Amino acid sequence: MFYTQLGNYSLVFGFIFSLIIFFFCFKGINNKSKKIETNIFSFLFLQFLSISLSFICLIISFVLSDFSNETVYNNSHTTKPLFYKISGSWGNHEGSLLLWLLVLVFFVFIFSLTSKKHPKEYRILTIVFQEVIIFGFISFLLITSNPFNIIFPTPVEGLGLNPILQDPALAIHPPILYLGYVGSSIIFSSSLAALTQNYINKSWASHIKKWIISSWIFLTLGILVGSIWAYYELGWGGFWFWDAVENISLMPWFCLTALLHTILVLEKRNLLKKWTLILSITTFTLSVSGTFLVRSGILNSVHTFANDPSRGIFILIFLFILIILSIVIFFFFQVNDRPTIKKSFLFSKETAIMINNLFMMYFLSVVLIGTIYPIILEVLSDNRVSIGPPFYNKLLYPFLILFLIIMAFGTKLNWINSTLPKVRYINFFYLFISILISIYIVEITETKYLFSTVLFGANFILIIKTTEDFFVKNNNFSQNLAHFAFSIFILSILLNGVLSKEFSANMKYGDEIKINESSIKFVNLETINKKNYKSIITGFQIIDKNGKIENFNPEVRIYNQPEILTSEADIKSDIFSDKFLVVNLLKDDGYFNVRYQIKPFMLWIWTSIVLLSIGGMLSFFRRV
Amino acid sequence: MYGKKVKLRIIFLSLIFLISLLTIFFILKSLEENVVYFKSPTDIKEIIEISDKKIRVGGMVKKGSVVLSSDKINFIITDFKNEVNVVYSGAVPNLFAEEKGVVAEGILRDRNFLNAKKILAKHDENYMPPEVKKALEEK
User: Fold this and answer.
1) Rounded to an integer, what distance in angstroms lies between the CA atom of residue A6 and that of residue A225?
2) Is A40 helix (H, G, I), strand (E, B) or coil?
3) What is the reported pLDDT for A140?
4) What is the pLDDT of residues B94-123, one digit of tens each?
């Protein structure tokens, strides 16, 4: 009760501090002195403290199972393990928004500390824009989704957290993803501020580049953790389903990746200013609209959790205000886009990066159309539709071929002017090898299409070229590592796609079923009572054609609060392939619904994404 | 009449315009081909022609209707006005259960029978498909 009150009041204080910061910012901007008044820093710090305090209060309420707090009552239970009591505090709508807010105030505080070298007006304006966003989010929290609502009389027991969310991967997924999303808000505010101050130049670029890289890393890792969770917890045996909620995190990623490359052009060549701005605004808009679409229940997604339309409308209004604000600023302030230095030529790094951006925008528009088309159609014609993987595969793969080839050779070009590189005969040799390997793969996997040969071929060219680059002197190692990781990533998902095998059946205890040359046997069944669930552990044996036996112990958990069934897959991973066995209990008639899958190169997919972000991290710490 | 620069720009702009038009056309065309319509059992009763295109049927799993055998699962999707029989062989998601919301994707054999290729269930135990909610409220 006490912590709930305390949390609520410190949230209100955070709101008041926001207003005070506005006041000092306007005062500070008219001030003639070159420095920012220290009280802006103090209030930013106070705001950060008060929001942290309120977040800590929420965690304590969860730990103490204080059911007088409505959020705790709805999402917690006394029998829940401590770890999930803590992670449960951001596993729900209200708490996750409080976390959003916490990251927002934390980032603006960090920004104010790390931007000392830059003009005062630019810094103050960035803080103002950022405070507008914070102001909007605090009012959103206080009006529609306050995490500190009190229930009276106090209930004895809570409703419990959705067991699917009781998982370590999902405990860290939202914070990481939010760091990425919210990082884009700094990019947004800072580019608007820089635009009004006519400060879009090389030094701004190298300063905002750090923010872009760090949000890109967090977004990448956040998507990765979510994907790993979906892989083993949902038991679908895949890592990406082109589901609306997944797409929504992917769209800002495309945008941010484009921005990550464009900012280099701005930094080195002082070009593409308007485009950088458009990308920054778009990235942030996509992040906020992502939150809106997930929370509003508009999306017809299999992932959707309980939600409330009134919240969606609030975010929608807020989003419109932000977009209109940025468009007005964008059109009223002229960007000085006259290149002061030599023009770029057709064959140059600039062009290569432009082409990369074009591809990113294409991928983005495909995913965007695929995600919002069902919404638009439902509003217009009352037809409800869904768009599945074939749509994305058909539209993305052909362009991926071109993308991979250009990526292999584009990085070799110099800035400004690169004469057409001399034809090196070794490239023909690479091409020959690539085609040979891909023909071999296509042969053994029996996907005899010209198309897949070309796709694999393009991918192998990229792999060979990036591997070759590791041995070149004066090479940009971080970029090279990231590109190499990307090529391995594409290879693994392609191989995963063509080599995956699946088998499913309903089996009773003692059954044995033959699949091709191997067989699957249901050998064991036991029930164990745990603290907050009952566990049914099954034992299966897979006997392959050589007589080798492998044991699997997938589990079905029956949670008591709320009463819900989850399956825990048993996954045997080795370097080249995952064997995935999951069972499900439909009713009490002895039948178990069994699914056995062979998923090659799963470990490679995860590792390559981790390598990709390590590439990002290295470039973050690189001195230019 | 116009300078060389202006001409070049016009050509450049119209090229961009053409390319984006083509891209949009290309995307929309594959949308048409890959869209899966979502129907309730009542909608299905009103279908005039049964095509062999994939559709999704959403509703509640009728109480007591789930029957398992070694290679398939039979159940009935209901929106409390009409029902559709579903036969499915494969793995079902965690939250698939009687009296819970479900979405089955597959090909209609006739107005009462769906050959499902995929079963989807929401992750939220309180979730109910909107049309079922509506039907329940009307009852």
Assistant:
1) 33
2) helix
3) 87
4) 778 888 888 888 999 888 899 998 887 765
* Interface contact A235-B89, CB threshold 8 A: no
Interface residue of A295, A365, A561, A584 to substitute, partner B, most B CBs within 10 Å = A584
Tokens found for residue A327: 């468009």
Rounded-to-integer distance, Cα B9 and Cα A182, Å? 39
Is the CB of A564 less than 8 angstroms away from the CB of B71? no
Which tens digit of pLDDT belongs to each residue from A350-380?
Answer: 889 999 999 999 999 999 988 888 888 878 8
Q: What 3-state DSSP class applies to B45?
A: helix
What distance lies between CA A175 and its chain's CA centroid?
11
Query: What is the tens place of the pLDDT at every residue in A143-160?
Result: 888 999 988 888 888 887
- The two three-digit tokens of residue B134, written as one number: 């509506």
> What confidence tens digit (pLDDT) does each residue in B59-99 have?
888 888 888 888 889 999 988 888 999 999 888 877 788 88
Nearest-CB residue to A388 (from B34, B68, B97): B34
The answer to whether A234 contacts B97, with C-beta atoms less than 8 Å apart, is no
In which residue are the tokens 């778009």 written? Answer: A282
Beta-bridge partners for A528: A535
- Name which of A35, A171, A153, A197 is nearest A99 in CA terms: A171
Q: How far is residue B111's CA from residue B83's CA, in Å, rounded to a whole number?
A: 10
Q: Which residues from chain A sit within 8 angstroms of residue B97, using beta carbons?
A: 565, 586
pLDDT tops 90 at residue A62 = yes
Q: Which residues contact B66 (CB under 8 A, 6 or more apart)?
A: A586, A587, B73, B74, B75, B98
Tokens of B56: 């999704």
B34 → closest Cβ in A234, A384, A387: A387
- Please say if the pLDDT value at position A61 is more than 90: yes
Is the Cβ pair B70, A505 closer than 8 Å?
A: yes
Residues of A in contact with B93 (CB under 8 A): 234-236, 584
Comparing C-alpha atoms, which of A615, A624, A620, A617 is closest to residue A477? A615
Task: State whether residue B51 sits within 8 Å of chain A by CB.
Answer: no
Give the integer Cα–Cα distance in Å for A283 and A266: 17
Q: Is A507 on the interface with B (CB under 8 A)?
A: yes
Please choose, from the candidates A176, A308, A315, the residue with its C-alpha nearest in 3D space to the C-alpha of residue A249. Answer: A176
| Test the A interface: residue of B71, B96, B125 with most A CBs within 10 Å | B125
pTM of the model: 0.91
Residue A405 in contact with residue A458, Cβ under 8 Å? yes
Q: Does domain B37-138 have CATH number 3.40.1160.10?
A: no
Binary contact (B31, A373; C-beta < 8 A): yes
Cβ–Cβ of A593/B70 closer than 8 Å?
Answer: no
Put simply, the answer to whether B123 touches A586 (Cβ < 8 Å) is no
Kindly provide the b/e burial profile for residues A251-261, where b requires at least 16 CB atoms within 10 angstroms of the residue's own CB. bbbbbbbbbbb
Query: ipTM for the complex?
Result: 0.81
B91·A302 Cβ contact <8 A? no
> Quick one: three-class SS letters along A420-458?
CCCCCHHHHHHHHHHHHHHHHHHHHHCCCCHHHHHHHHH
| Phi and psi at residue B103, to the nearest 5° | -130, 125
How far apart (Å, rounded) are the C-alpha atoms in residues A524 and A584?
15
In Å, how far are A262, A424, A544 from A349, measured between CA atoms?
Answer: 11, 19, 52
Domain borders along chain B are 1-34, 37-138
Inform me whether the pLDDT recorded for A206 exceeds 80: yes
Q: Which of B73, B97, B124 has its CB closest to that of A305? A: B124
What count of CB pairs under 8 Å joins A to B? Answer: 118
The answer, yes or no, to whether residue A609 has pLDDT greater than 90, is: yes
Q: Which of residues 2-21 of B touch A (CB under 8 A)?
A: none
